[in-house]
Input
Amino acid sequence: MWRRFKRHTNQMRVNPVEQTEQEIPDQAMERLKDVKVTSDLQEMLATANNLLGENDDFEVREFHIFGKFPAAMLYITDLVNQTMVNTEVLKSFMYLPRQLEDKHIELSQLKDIILQDALYHSKGKAKDRLNEAIEAVLRGKTVVFVDGLDQAFVVETRKVEKRAIDQPATEQVIRGPREGFIEQLQTNLGLLRYRLPSTDFRVKTMKIGRITKSKVAVCYIKGIVNDALVEEVQRRLSAIDIDGVLDVGQLEQFIEDNHITPFPQVQNTERPDKAVANMLEGRVAILVDGSPFALIVPTVFNQFYQVTEDYTERFLLVSFIRLARLIALVFSLITPSLYVAVISFNPELIPTEFAVAVAGGRAGVPFPSVVEVFVMEVSMEVLREATVRLPQQVGGALSIVGVLVIGQAAVSAGFVNPITVVVIALTTIGSFATPAYNAALALRLLRFPLVILAGMFGLYGVMVGLILIANHLLSLRSFGVPYITPLVPGNFQGMKDTVIRAPLWWMKKRPSFLHTPNRTRLSESTVEHIKQPPVNTLDPLKVGNEKWGESDGVSSTDHSDSSGSRTD
Output
């Protein structure tokens, strides 16, 4: 038995490669990465059929180029535009160009003639590696092998059904663009290019996922972004080795600084205008083919309660709305724990009339306040999750039934206090007022430990919990940027866009914590122009005024007529 165990151990040591291949999916493309396309057409077809032949949507069409050279066209029917394949690929290869009808064509000239004279497509290339040709077929391109040529022709013929560009479902605005990202990466990059017609806009792509080979795009503006930030983003993405990436949320979990925290350190958005605005400040946007969201790094906490309308409306109105949003954020975090602490430990803090009402409401309730609040919070979370997962037609009805009927029935049955229902309702409304879903989810999670601390230690427990949360926030980083910036460390320029939103002409510089090489966002000439008194071109005291076409009461343009009538 010992000899058998020793022999088995030696086999494992001798064949480490076999063990590794058993741990990860078989990668035929990896084995072909050093294999080149050969001039033997039948050998190439046999290899392609061995890899893709079991698929019913894999098509091989053999023909003769210019009626002379044997060739074969490979594509996947579900991924290509069949009309383009027939008219722009097959027809281009089969029919000799008119200007070459009287000339004799040798095999050595065929590649240049096809690419320069015959092919009716702007995206046609020649590939000499077999894995690149096979991968092109899998991505919806058409590949042509020619007998006698050691290169394959690859033509872009991909056509995948996609949904229309519509308003983002998760980031609604009243005033602002209505366009949102969709699943196709090329369309999303086009939306960014549309807003950034600049040579400084850069897009760097890479493939992540051994099986999915998902295309990931890193977007930034050269000259505004810090080059070290771009290098760090690419380094973190390049270190990811996984079977597949289906959404940017998976990448987010790999590239964030702190993995054990409820607070998001990477912002996601469905809005192209929001992504462009962040890139103009010096951030990097990350997109994945197949996902309608973009990641924005680095991220600080105040970005999660800011919306697009904060910059399209006037600063006085926006500042008021942002303050209301912050109050709602505080409500959603500490209202239940404060209620439990005051009711259970410090009822003397309640006004007498209100205390009598609370005592009357709690008469007959069999549970202490902490259990009451905890059960109501859990019930609300379950109801909210059910509302999200149910179909839209049923979800709206369920939310109304849950809030009105179930809440009223619980109060009538004596399970909960009516004031508790009011507190939980305020808390829920406050969490809905937080624009970012992932940030609101973090606050919803932190409510539970705060309620437990309040039930055990009263107001002292609430203060300890808030201190721990603040300490945790101070310890977080997003690509090295402190999470509470610009509050800690303090920065006056950055504070103009935190609790309130200052006028746009006050924010002349880009955020300093991004360390951009070009910090000037607004020119001094524009600021000086804003400071100048307005030129009232059409002031009635200057240009005159007419009433119902009569001269009576018409002011003079030069105020020289003492009678008050305008002289023509």
